[in-house]
Design goal:
The structure is a single chain. The protein is α/β, with parallel strands linked by helices and 275 residues long. The protein has a domain of 169 residues: NAD(P)-binding Rossmann-like Domain (Rossmann fold, 3-Layer(aba) Sandwich), CATH 3.40.50.720. It has 11 helices and 11 strands. It has a 7-stranded parallel β-sheet with strand order 3-2-1-4-5-6-9, sandwiched between helices. It has a two-stranded parallel sheet with strand order 7-11. α1 links the parallel β1 and β2. α1 crosses α6, α3 packs parallel to α4 and α7 packs across α11. It binds NADP nicotinamide-adenine-dinucleotide phosphate (NAP). NADP nicotinamide-adenine-dinucleotide phosphate (NAP) binds next to loops.
């Protein structure tokens, strides 16, 4: 049977595909923009018939989270006889925030958990790969402009998220992962300012960190984060993490057997982004 991987153009989906394919599993990649991804099937996540085509002969799914399309997915997945879903959610949902606008992930989790298939929730915190967006600023202006530079994060490498997803899918439905929620972080807590310091130290690229006021940040981030409630939720989260080391979740090591990758490893993997 086939494993469907949604969100095909995303970094995590690509790593999940590579990991499963290299272990001989039959995978089908779905994307909203299949033209950009040779071999991928087209998927309109809001459309039941699109899911029905993508889910033909599929027993397991790696699913990107979207509360607005979760009901359609559950209907299609049950009709197709899907047995296991691994949902890429967010650590934000651990706060059990019932405000769907501020935290779309917990709404999606509730919907997917209502399905008759086995479900595992992956709940990663901040992705290391967010630094790719910082690299665009560095290349354009030599600056990284962020609010709450002293906020502590424990960013996680996208390969570690993928490794957990791969392990859960390889173990399959009926394993100890059924019904579990896996909060996930990277192995170390550090401020956003320290992350910028490490980028300069490793790449040699001089960077001016600019500590934006919350209002400056709201203005500068409005175009990239179109959900104002989610933006406000993020701002409160960063404010709460100033002077407060981020708790480290052991999930990556417990599930995969290897330690979580450090931010320095991620920078070595992505050095050219800043040059
Ligand atoms: N960035 C973080 O720090 C962070 C932390 C915790 C959780 N998350 C969550 O992890 C997920 C991926 O985050 P990211 O930053 O990697 O996002 P991204 O780059 O915006 O999205 C990655 C891929 O997800 C697919 N996708 C996006 N919106 C979708 C939708 N509504 N329905 C189906 N597929 C969709 C797209 O694939 P195709 O266009 O190929 O279909 C896209 O290429 C998001 O749900 C995000 O909220 C992110």
């Amino acid at each position: 049977m086939t494993i469907l991987i949604t969100g095909g153009r995303g970094k995590i989906a690509r790593a999940v595909q590579a990991g499963l394919s290299s272990r001989g599993r039959e995978v089908r990649v779905a994307s909203r923009e299949p033209a950009e991804l040779p071999g991928a099937v087209a998927l309109d996540p809001a459309d039941l018939s699109s899911w029905s085509i993508a889910l033909k002969d599929v027993s397991q799914v790696f699913l990107y989270s979207d509360p607005s399309t979760a009901t359609v997915f559950v209907e299609a997945a049950e009709a197709a006889g899907v047995q296991q879903v691994v949902l890429l959610s967010s650590l934000a949902s651990q706060a059990d925030n019932r405000n769907a606008a501020a935290d779309p992930h917990s709404a999606a989790e509730r919907e997917i958990l209502s399905g008759s298939f086995a479900t595992t929730l992956l709940q990663p915190g901040t992705f290391m790969t967010n630094a790719i967006f910082w690299s665009y600023q560095v290349r354009a202006t030599g600056q990284i402009r962020l609010p709450y530079l002293e906020a502590e994060e424990a960013p996680i490498h996208e390969q570690d998220i993928a490794d957990v997803a791969i392990k859960v899918l390889l173990d399959g439905p009926g394993s100890t992962h059924d019904g579990r929620a896996y909060p996930m972080t990277g192995p170390e807590s550090m401020t956003r300012r320290h992350q910028i310091y490490l980028i300069t130290e490793l790449t040699g690229v001089p960077i001016e960190p600019v500590d934006l006021t919350p209002d400056q940040a709201r203005e500068e981030m409005a175009s990239s984060m179109r959900n104002p409630a989610q933006l406000e939720s993020l701002m409160s989260y960063w404010a709460s993490r100033v002077g407060s080391p981020h708790p480290i979740e052991p999930t990556v090591e417990l599930v995969t057997g290897h330690a979580g990758r450090t931010f320095v490893t991620w920078l070595n993997d992505n050095q050219t982004a800043f040059k």
